[in-house]
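User: Second chain of the day. Same drill as before.
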Amino acid sequence: MKNKLLLFVCLLISGSNLFAQSAYQWKTATAGGYTYKYVTNDPSKTRFYTLKNGLTVILSPNTKEPNIEFRMSVRAGSNTDPKNATGLAHYLEHLLFKGTDKFGTANWAKEKPYLDKIDALYEKYNKTTDPAQRKEIYKEIDKTSGEASNFSIANEYDKMIAGIGGSSSNAHTWYEETVYNEDFPSNSVDKFLAIQGERFRKPIFRIFHTELEAVYEEKNRGLDDDRNKLDEAMMELVFPTHNYGQQTTIGTIEHLKNPSLIEIRKYYNKYYVPNNMAAIFTGDFNPDEMIKKIDKTFSYMVAKPVTLYNPAPEKPLTKIQQVDIYGPSAEMVDIYYRGYAENSQQSLMLGLIRSILTNGKAGLIDINLNKQQKTLRASASYQQMKDYGVFNLTAQPKQGQTLEQASKLLLEQIELLKQGSFDDDLLKAIVANQKLGFLQAFDSNGNRAENLSTEFVLNRGTKWDKNLGEIEATAKITKAQVVAFAKEFFKNNYVIGFKHKGEDKNVIKVEKPTITPINANANLTSPFVKSVIDAPVKPIAPKFLDYQKDIAFGKVGIAEVLTTKNNDNSIFRMSYRFNLGANNYKLLPYASSYLPYLSTDKYSAEEISKAFYNIACSYSLSVGAEIVTINISGLQENFDKAVSLVEHIFANVKPNEKALTELKSNILKSRENNKLNKGQIMNALTSYAQYGNLNPFNNVLTNEEVKNIKAEDLIYILHNLNNYEHVVTYYGPKDQASFSADLKKQHLLPKEFTPAAPAKVYTYTTQDANKVYFANYDMVQSEIRWLRNTGVYNKADAAEIQVFNSYFGGGMGSIVFQTIRESKALAYSTFATYQSPDRADKQYSMVAYVGSQADKMTDAVTGMNELLNVLPQSNKSFDGAKANVLNGLETTRITKDGVLYAYFADKKLGFDHDSRIDLYKELKPINFGSIKSFHEQKIANKPYTYLIVASDKKVKLEDMQKFGAVTTLSLEQLFGY
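Assistant: Same format as last time:
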């Protein structure tokens, strides 16, 4: 499931005069025997078709890369779940990956009786309340499922998609949608359509009880997510009658435990009908040819009357309501206001108000709270659904600040809004930045597909003209209108949620049932899959980079300059890339954090933020362990202004003792919060295991050293940064000579660069015996990660590693996923990967992961260890994995400033050319024996460090000791403070 903010639809365009055009009007045209609708001046040239059976087809051609993105969007989600079976739409989403009577099965005739029996058993189980009887019925379900699995073929769908070159097979369910997404090479259109046509023809709900357990795990992960719990509780009050608040996408525990396959089938038959679905394609195709193929593929679908969720209007909220949630993570406050329907004038206004409050630079919250460090962080957002929206204010309190005080500061910004206490020019700046977004945000096929899917779900594709014209509509809104609207909208009509740090005594996890591992039959292939995979396709030739041709190399003063041209639009992105980082100077990250709060001799910190926003440009100082970059981007017409301002800032920033005092306090508060974040704890454990007790994660200033940071030391770093060796990169409309001439006027350089201090070098650990590093955290689940350092980088291993990762643990069709989740139902999330370093003198590491219920931890570890020690052989899976890697190389096009990033990445690994050239050649001879040998040499029967984050109340010490000697690490050891 994926929560989605309805984004303004904007696509990459050429030319600067489009915004003068205001006529986004629907037109009708006919081509190739098919009639379609389109919107004039639509830069994406999207076509909207309606087939005879009612299926909506949306085509947006983009021939820059030989790839296509696909969405099958269904206008049904958790809103349409039956009241007595919440979570049903989400269950169904999972089951649409299980195949039909033609694939996913080795023998449908023999499999079917078992599946019919399982259907009946679940109906009986659903209606039985006696615990003992339910347990006996479940034993029969488990037994029959095992028998059925002798004929099923797990993950055949994923293997097909991988075999034709797909790499992003997934789906999500939300309030009013279920969307299935794929990408695939443009030479595999016929294969892909054959797969999708069959997939939706007659889905079979096989391998259900292990998939059900995966959904249980997903529910338990939600119970460990304090932010999710707060949102659910607040939505229930914001929408006391609407299903936005009364039903969750994942469903209730009671309903999860009592599924009905018959009800799921009814749901599919009711809502998965062509007049309620859209097939969306964006990418490299001829729309006249594509529509014929799509029509032929889905012509079997038959339209049916569809009644979607149509609730009575919610009554206005007339009071303040409060929610209090407890959990182990950091405290926060949310304030929810109920918004309006999609594409209403009110929603347009709320989208604008969100930018007035927070836009990253010049909003009221940006300037008054974040820039002045009055909270740890704060923001506003507007989440749009079909019937209503939710306007959200959120903040994390700083050190010594209560949740009530943080919420008061948020509400004060609303009062300033209602008083009109914001710059008159802010509305113009917001529109200018929207125009910049129009140029840059939707260059990718994936983003196009996502937004077209949202347009279909919310409007059936009828409001595309409004979406394209949203900038112009926003530009017409006056300050007086904003103020009048704000006074009417923002009253004592909100829900306020306080997330407190503390024990949640109401958590009830979904208990694990006893599941016997099913037979995945990874070596079997259905005739349908064989016919798809074996069908010939016209090959796509790979296109590799030639750095000497694709990059222009030059110099400005003593600095090397690398440029690549933007021939699409007027956007530029440039950077000063310094050959130093936090490994050289521990204070660098703190100087970067200090910078946004500093003034110069000419401008205040607030004026600087507003200045960048007014010219629709951005800059940032990014500090990594080894590289520091000053990044500048925006419209080329404002290049001189942006670069001049950046140069002025770094040369002239002044100390601000008050800001530094606040910053130190916020750093200490953020550090406290990091210790409450299970993801951060796992990252700390990983670094500890990889490098020992002094490692890149914890080698930071102590809290006492933070308190003693001096402003003059940070200012010295900022003033002198340009004196260190750096490379200038530029992606934009100008050629190398013109850019260099412009840069020379702005970027002052020393006669010679100042040598950087030697970088801290960390020593890799040697895993000579199994051991366990444990960190205690109050949670329902357990998070387990395996780590082993395996030796220094070797160019010759690259091809084997690529294929091994694809085969072993790189996706839903991988061995790890099939075994741990599909066959044994031990986890919702699992992976394993042989990680390659980013520099030639660093080491590889083998990393595996399982996130499981705490009471399944031992089984999960055993299951992963079996795979780490003995590599299962599936020739069909291997062929698909290798084909997927080759397809990826053949169809990937590195463009724009990606060329520069690829150059630097290859250079760090010792290549003077595109490393993919070597990789492509070396892939061809690789066979299963190659990766089996690799697995035996590098991975199998080797000692590992087990990293476990779990509650000591839910996992037993004696169980962990079975894996190796256990060391419980304190948070101070892990974090270094």
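The chain has four domains: 39-310+510-534, 321-443+461-501, 547-746, 771-975.

User: Great, on to the next one.
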